[in-house]
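idk why but the lab printer keeps eating my pages so im just putting this in chat instead. protein + adenosine-5'-diphosphate:
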Amino acid sequence: MSLIECKNLVMNYENKVAVDDVSFTIEKGDYLCIVGENGSGKTTLMKGILGLKKYNSGNIEYNIKRNEIGYLPQQTIIQKDFPASVYEVILSGCLNRSKFNPFFSKQQKNVAKENMERLGISNLAKKSYRDLSGGQQQRVLLARALCATGELLVLDEPVTALDPIATTDMYDIIQSLNRDNGITIVMISHDIDSAIVYGNKIIHMGNKMEFFGSTNDYVLSNSYRRMLKKIQ
Ligand code: ADP
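predcted complex ->
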């Protein structure tokens, strides 16, 4: 079943076309990686999917409620210094489920606790978020994103600021969420090697869509060859 279907999507900034005639589907269980150079429209496309920026033409069809999409944004410096406990940060991920109620229900608190356990960070619950390592902070934000969803996670460059060990750790967790928990993953990535190891599908953006299809087909494509040449 497709969770999201994009048809002929066009997204502009003033007079500049950032996403140009892009069509693809996200199927349940996919691990879809969006790759491409800087400025190729990856972030803009993701904002379109999340409903954070309006598209100019084309269509997006959702077979999932939009507030059931978990989102892990790129970490900013301000977030790194957030003065709250780990548990509070994770629980705040439950907010968009109860717009009209400022208090968290017992069920929401349980969801937050379950996600802490799932990511192996229950022992950090009372610690201050800003005292954690980069890898631990990403786990917390992932647990927070999971409070919004058991279905689809959208991750924007989740390993950018991490050291190699924390990077592998993060990729393993994401893979397990996909394989063991059936959570569909959409990930923007600069790391092409990992994208083809972990992802089952690839979107290669170049403002227009250079490639959309299975990872197996992507590694045989001209888009991939061109990308490798640029990296080397
Ligand atoms: P990527 O995520 O692949 O680096 P972006 O989606 O951020 O690419 O950007 C795509 C294009 O849109 C780029 O040419 C960029 O300069 C332009 N762009 C991105 N954000 C804005 C903005 N807020 N205002 C104007 N142009 C933007």
